[in-house]
Amino acid sequence: MRFVRFKTPDGHPALGARVGDEVINLTKLGLPGTLDELLRLGAAGMASAKAALEKATTRLPLSSVQLMAPLHHPHKAFAIGLNYVDHAHEGNFTPPTQPVLFHRYPTSWVAHGVAIERPKASIEFDYEGEIVAIIGKGGKYISKENALDHVAGYSLFNDGSIRDFQFRSSQWMWGKNFDRSGGFGPEFITADELPLGVVGLDITTRLNGQVMQKANTRDMIFDVATLVVACSEGMELHPGDMIITGTPAGVGFARKPPVFMKAGDVCEVEVEGMGILSNPVIDEA
Amino acid sequence: MRIFTFEKAGKATLGLLKNEQEYIDLELAGYAHANNMVDLLSQADWEVKLAEILKNAPASAVASIAGLKYDILIANPSKIICVGLNYADHAKEGGHATPDHPSFFIRVNSSQVAHQQPMLVPKQSSERFDYEAELAVIIGKTARHLTADNALDCVAGYSCYNDGSVRDFQRKGTQWTLGKNFDKTGSFGPWLVTKDELPAGGDGLKIQARLNGQVLQDGNTADFLFSVSQVLVILSEVMTLEPGDVIITGTPAGVGYARKPPIFMKEGDVCEIEIEKIGILSNPIANA
């Protein structure tokens, strides 16, 4: 199934199922209003969502609703650095031998279609097309064999980065958490709709239509199962926790000359079978 | 004023210290925002209301602090941001140059425990669990784009933090996040001391870490490379700070991994963080 979090035409937040270019309001049919609440209900929650979808008699045109980010209050939203060899090399980093984790706060992302903001503090506003894995079943010390059972599904992420701030110190958190600098969406796709571990999918980032990143998820250094294992080794994972899985080569700062996003641009992240996350760029007000 | 969170019948409740022996249960005193520190700090008039309660609380709301079970001071802040390498001597002991900029990383809420609760030695790292004494700054007002003139206005108060670190995991990659976020490895409390009781910016306070009574870190916040005010200006250029957000300001020299021979925390130890005019944050160490 494909879930969207959205505001109804009269402004109420709800969780919906997207079918084609229509949305079924699941919250109105008695399902929770947020994805993390639904995920906490486990398999029973998914079954209820499916049942509600089959019985639904009213559908809204997708174009009539305002999409929200799939998740707003995850316990944790870890992002993985340097998870493609070519991206590590373009930034003059040695490809890591262990997953490299940093973290993004929910205040740093916006929904599909909403403007991402170039901050007042910098012009070095860069894109990073990524897939985000979303935990459905919590756990600690998860084994690699079972790891993918803990992933409920996936979505797209633009890990927007303010490069000069990111590299002011050894710790990247600073440049990865500017308010509204990242995009997340458009929808949450249950794992059963995608290849196991999202392996073998083309991932593309376009800026104003021009292809800037083009790769395949089979080139991730650490696959999704390995990332789940690495995160759960120290921390108990909970439904709704996010693992943003890293970006391939082609980012703006490593280009010659560098390319950065500015007001008026449109940045799109597309993954085969997962749709397009599109965000216009504006200057911070 | 000193405000803390404690557990009452399994539920988080806020208390206000009345004197060295007694506290006021804010719920019993009839305060409407008595169960969650973020909620309390989000009220525009919390300082006025608490001052009134401190003066007029009925005897029925007053109890002895003996036997109190402390809860995590702020269990659900929207952010816990840590400053790395904010004392020159600590940067040096770790083999780092004195930085031109602060470095920031984060802790997730599940990485913390309360005053007097055990901090847990991870199973995978039984010999690399280190302490870090730090001054915690607690935000009381929504803030963005602060300036040196107004930065400290958004501070509600200060507390102690033990930024417990799993060193081998901290150094596995370039980013320290993993080693700073193991479940229940950090500690926060015992209380929030309102800023009116402390020097501006928490400046000039003695800060110590003791392990089983032995002083291992002995610094002074006057030696910050980046003052609380500077850190707030820098962070608010990046993001909106919100009531209840916590900023942990870095640790002085003397951490365990940099000692020769190294000292790490193990089950049965007791680690105390003491900051002058704030108090002592004490935690036993146990195996996960």
CATH architecture classification name of the largest domain in chain B = Alpha-Beta Complex
Mean pLDDT of chain A: 96
Radius of gyration of chain A: 18 Å
Task: Provide the CATH top-level class of the largest domain in chain A.
Answer: Alpha Beta
Number of H- or I-type helical stretches of chain A: 6
Individual helix count of chain B = 5
Strand elements of chain A, count:
19
Mean pLDDT of chain B: 96
Greatest interface: A-B, 38 and 39 residues
CATH fold assignment of the largest domain in chain B: Fumarylacetoacetate hydrolase, domain 2
Output the helix-strand order of chain A.
EEEHHEEEHEEEEEHEEHEEEHEEE
Q: Using the coordinates above, name the CATH class of the largest domain in chain B.
A: Alpha Beta
User: Which class of secondary structure composition applies to the elements of chain B?
Assistant: mainly beta
Overall morphology of chain A: globular
CATH topology (level 3) name of the largest domain in chain A: Fumarylacetoacetate hydrolase, domain 2
The succession of helices and strands of chain B, N to C, reads EEEHHEEHEEEEEEEHEEEHEEE
Task: Give a short account of the largest sheet of chain A.
Answer: 12 strands, mixed
- At CATH level 2, the architecture of the largest domain in chain A is Alpha-Beta Complex
Instruction: Note the gap between the termini of chain A.
Output: 37 Å
Would you write up a description of this structure?
The complex is a heterodimer of chains A (285) and B (288). By secondary structure, chain A is α+β, with helices and mostly antiparallel strands. Chain A has 2 domains: 2-68, Fumarylacetoacetase, N-terminal domain (SH3 type barrels, Roll); 77-283, Alpha-Beta Complex (Fumarylacetoacetate hydrolase, domain 2). Chain A contains 6 helices and 19 strands. Chain A has helices at 35-40, 42-55, 85-90, 144-147, 163-166, 224-234; strands spanning 2-7, 13-19, 22-25, 60-61, 66-68, 77-81, 100-103, 109-111, 116-118, 125-126, 129-135, 151-158, 161-162, 182-190, 202-207, 210-216, 242-244, 266-271, 275-283. In chain A, the strands form 3 sheets. In chain A, strands 1, 2, 3, 4, 5, 6, 7, 8, 11, 12, 14 and 17 form a 12-stranded mixed sheet that branches. In chain A, a hairpin with a 3-residue loop joins strand 18 (266-271) and strand 19. Chain A starts with a strand and ends with a strand. Chain B is mainly beta and 288 residues long. Chain B has 2 domains: 2-64, no CATH class; 80-287, Fumarylacetoacetase-like, C-terminal domain (Fumarylacetoacetate hydrolase, domain 2, Alpha-Beta Complex). Chain B is 13% helix and 33% strand. Chain B has 5 helices and 18 strands. Chain B has helices at 37-41, 46-56, 88-93, 167-170, 228-238; strands spanning 2-8, 11-17, 22-25, 62-64, 80-84, 103-106, 112-114, 119-121, 129-130, 133-139, 155-162, 165-166, 186-194, 206-211, 214-220, 246-248, 270-275, 279-287. In chain B, strand 2 and strand 3 form a beta hairpin. The two termini of chain B are 35 Å apart. The model of chain B has no long low-confidence stretch (mean pLDDT 96). The interface between A and B is large, with 38 and 39 residues.
